[in-house]
Amino acid sequence: MNTNILEVRNLKKSFEEKEVHRGVNFSMHSGETIGLLGNSGTGKSVLLRSIIGLEQIDEGEIYFRNERIDTFSEQELYKVRTQISYAFQTGALFDSLSVFENIAYPLFEHTQLSESQIEDKVRETLSIVNMKDAFDFMPSDLSGGMQKRVGLARAIVLNPEIILYDEPTAGLDPVNVEMVIEVMNRFKNKGISGILVTHDIPVAKKICDRILILRDGKISFSGSIEEFDNSNDPFVQSFLTGQ
Hints:
Blueprint: E1 4-15, E2 18-29, E3 33-38, H1 44-51, E4 59-64, E5 67-68, H2 74-83, E6 84-87, H3 99-110, H4 115-128, H5 144-156, E7 162-166, H6 174-189, E8 193-197, H7 201-207, E9 210-215, E10 218-224, H8 225-230, H9 234-241
Parallel strand pairs: 3-8, 3-9, 6-7, 7-8
Antiparallel strand pairs: 1-2, 1-4, 4-5, 9-10
């Protein structure tokens, strides 16, 4: 039986006069990967940020494992962010830290592991993203695709239950896109749930179990890949045709 790991109820968010979310509702099963689509400016990244409290919502409720988290204090959210990890669009690496130090940072912050245990964990995680030789590199030594994979490694190093992916393949060449897809599917096979914000429909189809489309501040479509492909809705079709 599938259980809901995450639930968003009637979420509303505005920036001054601009209404971004007007009542967003959806739930996610444990182990599921959801693709979140929508035209530019519809608030896809804002929704990801709202889930982990990086944006304060105006109304609504957010539940993680049946516990309401949108009312949590910053200190309480600290723990949530070890279980719901955010993979930033740019990789968001610390320029002055090595690859090892970037990935190890959450382990030093949130665990009691020894330095040798942390080193082992970082090496293991780098192997998962096919970057085991980059241990001592600096971010400036890495291509854009490699930086994104190091960012993904940092996102999973604490063994989160959910990863929020913000445009992980944006700006990458086809070879690096395939590498990132492979890494994300490895995470999925480990049982990690995910929400993928993307404009790349082929990528969404290779990774996601279900597609959500944001339109006019609400979820206007929710369905399987097959339902997405076969929808007669002209708006849904516009994502498939690119028009």
